[in-house]
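Fresh eyes needed here. Have a critical look at this protein's tokenised backbone.
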Amino acid sequence: MVQLRGQLDQRFSKLEPSSTNDTVEAYKAWIDGPASSECLLFIAPGEAGEFAPAMDASKIMEAAAASGFSLIRSWQLPGPRSLQAWARSSCDVG
């Protein structure tokens, strides 16, 4: 269970690498289709610790921007990676 802004039990969608091709168009179709109700997108660019098949974070970020998402915050993770939070422009995420 995750708590955001005092609301409990938030639902999250997870992009499965095997469910889409590794293209900007395929990632955008997922963002605008099955994940169209999502307001936040979390991305950790880089390949360290990824399971195969790894997704291309740069393509996901390009697709997110094309779908109305923008980067709102970034946190440094241990090691060389960061965690990025992207918000959909049509959502009020504070």
